Amino acid sequence: MSHINALRYWGASVPETITIRRDVVHVSVPKASQRKKVQGVQFHVFRGEPALRKENWEQFWVFAPPAAWSQMAPFCTAAQLAVIGASLLRRDKRDKVTTIDEITRYIEANPTIRSHATCLEAIPLLVENTDSPKEADLFQLLVKGGLGRPQANWRVDIPGSSRYRLIDLAYPECKVGFEYQGYHHAEPDQMQADYLRQNQLTQKGWVILYVTADHLETEESRRKFLETAQGIVSRQRALWSWFSA
Questions:
Q1: Which pLDDT score, from 0 to 100, does residue 194 have?
Q2: Are the C-beta atoms of residues 151 and 171 closer than 8 Å to each other?
Q3: What does the mean pLDDT of the chain come to?
Q4: Distance of CA 26 to the CA centre of its chain
């Protein structure tokens, strides 16, 4: 089992915009002569290292996460491929099935796979320890905007408390954080929790920018948000650099 079926097995999210058939089972073989005509099955020729896995109780082999990730490259852009990769690298230990290092080593060792250049382009955009595809998309926007790689789920300890707060994406050196606000943040209880969290982070000197789906929806909205982010991060970096001098 390969491609999107293998990714689903590993719990990855695949954007609906990606042009790969979803009404068949995808299977990969090393040679064109090994392809068969089976109803409901689409065969692919895969030139890379198989890297197959199978649990004892299962009756089929599944491509390992790095290989399955690489198989999607012909069907999507580098940015989309990086978002898929982030869903294999999530913060929850149950969902994190590989690492950026493992993916990088696999791609470097298999230059004959299709769309190898797309894989190489996507690797710098990969991020570990996010909680949603939107956070991975935001990560890409910040990196491509020249702000550097933010830290995902950065931990901030709260004074006088055994608790801590996690910031979705953060630049700790200048204390600027980005929080993606999904629809559940509009619920009253969640709003109260967010206000408390905001006050605690402000007390620690953090500047928090809140991001919604609207900010990431169009090229124009992304451009406007990025301009705001660039201005704030630049100002905060200059401020903290002055304090450190």
A1: 63
A2: yes
A3: 89
A4: 23
* 32-87 pLDDT per residue, tens: 999 888 999 999 999 988 888 776 666 778 999 999 999 999 999 999 999 999 99
Contacts of 235 (CB under 8 A, 6+ apart): none
Tokens 């790095």 label which residue? 66
**What is the Cα–Cα distance from 230 to 112, expressed in whole angstroms?**
39
pTM: 0.85
Binned at pLDDT 50, 70 and 90, residue 88 comes out as very high
Which H, E and C letters describe the chain, residue by residue? CCHHHHHHHCCCCCCCCCCCCCCCEEEEECCHHHCCCCCCEEEEECCCCCCEECCCCCCCCEECHHHHHHCCHHHCCHHHHHHHHHHHCCCCCCCCCCCHHHHHHHHHHCCCCCCHHHHHHHHHHCCCCCCCHHHHHHHHHHHHCCCCCCEEEEEEECCCCCCEEEEEEEECCCCEEEEECCHHHHCHHHHHHHHHHHHHHHHCCCEEEEECHHHHCCHHHHHHHHHHHHHHHHHHHHHHHHHHC
CA torsion, ordered 4, 10, 16, 21, to nearest 10 deg: 20
Q: Which two tokens stand for residue 125?
A: 């955009």
CA dihedral of 238, 241, 242, 243, whole degrees rounded to 10: 130
Question: How much is the pLDDT for 214?
Answer: 93
> Using CA atoms in the order 103, 17, 52, 67, what is the torsion angle rounded to 10 degrees?
-30
